[in-house]
Design brief:
By secondary structure, the chain is of the alpha/beta class. It has six helices and eight strands. Strands 1, 2, 3, 4, 5 and 6 form a six-stranded parallel beta sheet that branches. A two-stranded antiparallel ribbon has the order 7-8. It binds flavin mononucleotide.
């Protein structure tokens, strides 16, 4: 069974990402096609990217990077749970993506987004562009939650029926891609290293 990580992309105290991510992980469990883990970015306490070399090299110098790398390596597919900050993804999520390279290759990714009238979809459009650089496959089936505060009661997310249906269709498609990409994940090409910096004269 492919391993799915549901990643909570926001880290601020009081974030809605936690209850929404918890719901998404439970919905994935109910789908039954994956071994599911809820991964909370806040637990990894990643500082603003601080590795000296390009992540393609995999030469990590910090324990926080090694821990993050080991966690992401385990997964065959991802759901990114993302709010929209200023029409973009939160910096915590972009930073966490930038930390790694080979770990993301040939994995499919789906999005659960939330916000105001646009339901976080502008953040998702930015993320789709970013993840293709890492040879991830973003899938169009998604859960998009508009006016998110209206769906919160007592700190819990109460999904509209459409969100449950959208989640089911999203997990179906994510599973198809996780299966289709398994061979590419098992046989990645030799890494192309960035050119060494020119020697100082
Ligand atoms: C810095 C910041 C920028 C925001 N910008 C947007 C935005 O562009 N669009 C939107 O729909 N909501 C925006 N919001 C409201 C968020 O949708 C709402 O606060 C949501 O709960 C944030 O997710 P989080 O609770 O997981 O951090 C913004 C919130 C913050 C803190």
């Amino acid at each position: 069974m492919p391993k799915l990580h549901v990643i909570i992309g926001s880290t601020r105290p009081g974030r809605l990402g936690l209850p929404i991510g918890s719901w998404a992980a439970e919905a994935a469990e109910r789908h039954g096609g994956f071994e599911v883990e809820l991964v909370d970015l806040a637990d990894f306490e990643l500082p603003v990217f601080d590795e000296p070399t390009h992540p393609r090299m995999g030469k990590y110098t910090h324990d926080h990077t090694i821990r993050w790398s080991e966690k992401i390596k385990e997964a065959d597919a991802f759901v990114f749970v993302t709010p929209e900050y200023n029409y973009a993804p939160p910096p915590s999520l972009i930073n966490a993506i930038d930390y790694l390279h080979n770990e993301w290759l040939y994995t499919p990714v789906a999005f659960v987004s939330y916000g105001g009238v646009a339901a976080g979809t502008r953040a998702v459009q930015v993320l789709k562009q970013l993840v293709t650089t890492l040879k991830m496959v973003p899938i169009p089936e998604a859960v998009s939650i508009p006016f998110v505060f209206q769906a919160m009661r007592d700190g819990q997310y109460h999904p509209a029926p459409e969100s449950d249906q959208a989640a089911s269709a999203m997990f179906d498609e994510l599973l198809r891609w996780a299966t289709a990409l398994a061979d590419l994940r098992a046989n990645p090409p030799a890494p192309v290293m960035p050119p060494a910096p020119a020697a100082a004269k």
